Amino acid sequence: MNIGTNIYMLRKEKKITQAQLAEKLGVSEQAISKWENDQCAPDVSLFPIIADYFGVSIDRLFGYYMNSYAEEVKSIIKAADDSMDTYKEIEIISEGLKRYPNSPDLKIYLAFSLSMVNRFSEDNDERNKAVQKAIQLCLEVVDSCGDNKLVDRALNMLSRIYNEIGNYKKAEECINKISADSYDSRIAGKIRMLQGERCFAEQEQFAEDSLWKLFWTMSHVFESMTHSYKNNKEYDKALAFLHAHEKLLSVFDDGCPDFYAAYKMVACENKAEVYMRLGDKEKCFAELKRFYDLAKQVQAVAQNHDFNIAVRNPTYFSGISEEIYEEYMFNVNPSKALLKYDAFFGDDEAYVQFKEGITV
Asked: Do 335 and 222 share a structural domain?
């Protein structure tokens, strides 16, 4: 990798324009453009100035030791983790930042350690200094880092710090800046903020709505992964996701034993199919019997036609939107669904008797 490309990448990481960099270095904007387009290279006397401005070594400016840089940062963080002491963490990370002053990972880690000082220190002056330093570090990442994931981490840390010191307006501003890729941080951050403001009714409503969205999203993710592994004939992996999906679909059973019974039924039939592909008749048959029991349950529930989530499961979703409904299958036909298993079981007596007893 050449120096022009490295200057371009470092400039983008710092979120500055060619004109801003030119002003800092005392050269023309055209000169910066020529460097980045490999039309010429900076004068050798500028190398230490450029490296110092970006907070990197001249070796890194030339693209050397890029991997070792990342490994060094990881080793510093590991040493801090292994110390098991907040003040030691601060010491180790602070020393690391002297070597790598632009490392967003080190800045975010140090901000976290300083926020812990704010939690347990009995010295108000120490706490205030720790908080201000932590905020400064996070803002530096937000203002100068080009990696959205790291910016989201810094914003999440800022929201936590502002929340802990009672600045809920600032906390909310940070939460709203977190990208969609870090939606989980936005949810957790807003719940913390509402709790800190003692807006318990709003917190409960927001948490309930978010819980439903996360449940629904996870369900679709599990389904997608299951189908992907089935299509690739990786049945052991498909089975792992089916087990996880089954647990997810049952997590709210305390509020409603037949909650999402239709989806449980589909997941159960998928498990039976996977066991058939794996040649396990005993487990396949057990899942088919469960499938039949769930089919009867679905048919019974479907009779009342009340699929509103708030009504169906008031323990967990009493305040959720009245427009959110479960999906039910009204014409479940277990006999038809079992046809593809006939060849697998053949004249197995237990299976034949089971099919003859189906009444749904």
From this structure: yes
Q: What are phi and psi of 54, to 5 degrees?
A: -85, -5
Could you tell me if 219 and 341 lie in one domain? yes
Give the rounded distance of the alpha carbon of 292 from its chain centre: 36
Q: Would you call 305 exposed, middle or buried from its count of C-beta atoms within 10 A (0-12, 13-18, 19+)?
A: exposed
- Give the range of the structural domain holding residue 46, as residue numbers without chain letter: 3-61
What gap in Å lies between CA 334 and CA 338, rounded to an integer?
A: 6
Chunked into runs of 10 residues, the chain (360 residues) has average pLDDT values of: 77 84 91 86 87 76 64 90 93 90 91 94 95 96 86 95 94 93 90 92 92 93 95 95 95 88 91 95 95 87 81 89 79 82 93 84
d(CA 335, CA 332): 9
End-to-end CA distance of the chain: 68
Structurally, the chain folds into a number of domains equal to 3
DSSP, res 134: H
- Distance, CA of 337 to CA of 265 (rounded, Å): 11
Q: Token pair of 89, please?
A: 């963490």
- Across 77-115, b (16+ Cβ under 10 Å) vs e yields beebeeeeebeebbebbeebbeebebbbbbbbbbbbbbb
**Model-level pTM?**
0.66
State the CATH number of the domain containing residue 48.
1.10.260.40
Residue 205 counted as domain residue: no
What CA–CA distance (Å, rounded) separates 264 from 266? 6
